[in-house]
Predict the structure of 3-isopropylmalate dehydratase large subunit.
Amino acid sequence: MNKKPMTLSEKIFSKASGKNVAAGEFVIADIDRAMTHDITGPLSVKGFYEIMEGKDDKKVWDPSKIVIVFDHQVPADSQNAAQNHILMRKFATDQGILNYDVFEGVCHQVLPEKGHVKPGDLIVGTDSHTCAYGAFGAFSTGLGSTDMAAVLASGKLWFKVPETLRFNVRGNLPKHVCSKDLILHLIGDVGVEGARYKAAEFAGPAIQKMQMPERMTMSNMAIEMGGKAGLIEPDQVTEKYLKERIPNFSLDSYWKSDADANFSKIREYDVSDLEPQVACPHNVDNVKPVSELVGTKVNQIFVGSCTNGRFEDIQMMMNAIGNNPLAKGIRLIVVPASRTEYMKALRAGYVEKLMDIGAIVESPCCGPCMGGSFGRLGDGEVGLSTSNRNFKGRQGSPNSFVYLCSPETAGASAITGEITDPREI
């Protein structure tokens, strides 16, 4: 399709703009999929109708390419949230847009799970963690509500084609160490601006061995190192996942970076000796090995979010808990990322077991991740979370403290009441 070697990011923008482009160029690109949700959607809708004011036809560019997901404030936790839901339901009905408004789950789990993501797609969403879809070889990125208004009206948006920062990861992840530990390690290494406006591309044998849930965790947190996107080359693992969800899907081997493509930098890592990692308050790049934090007292543990709310994550947590009771005074909140993932956990007996030991299992939503309607931390409290951000006040009081970890570290810590190395359980 092209003669000049290209990165995956450059290939996707070349397709979307209808010409061969290189990093650094500005393009007007066609959008393959647009997503918005109950928090950011209302402003996008308002902006859309302002753009369309005075026009007879106030229809979006292509309703089949737009998806709405209710996930941040569900069920509605305030009158304002309820009114936003009404507004978004009416917009979806009037425009003929697919709307997952009945607690289907977190947007970044629901879209790929329902077959709305493909390799080579250019996807935008009014949520910073839209970069999660890069796990499937799509270029997906977050944008503001007013930019989404323009997308709803035109199906196009301007971009500066980003350079690609490649992370080559080799070796085998040790026992009790998972992709969450790896992505925290990478963020801690390069810092919160280490991949600023770059496409972070995760490659190498260690990445290729990962299944889709692990890859989604990696791509999901690319934004925490400043990345515009978090890309992983699609392969047979990707194909197997998508064939179960997209009729007649077949993988196009074109969607990968050429071997001699121009990367801004290639960073090499060997994970063979990596230990579990924890991000300490109040920044995601404040990462330390769990061994340096063992004994830190915890009040609440949250397992869920678009980062680590899949069945495999819950399974890791449950394996760490084993047949042990929760530590005295520990509040364990588990929120599966989607209805599908919830039902997997239910059928595996995990929901009943969690309720028996005193945990709470909520219906699929963002939950405590963004300091929503439940699970907020009070002054001086310490939370341990499998989510993606630990900014001051992110999960409650600005005087609380949030640590980020893997599901297995969360499970081990739930039975001790303090940050615990899962390798010691």
Notes: DSSP finds 14 helices and 18 strands in the chain. The first strand starts at residue 26 and ends at 30.
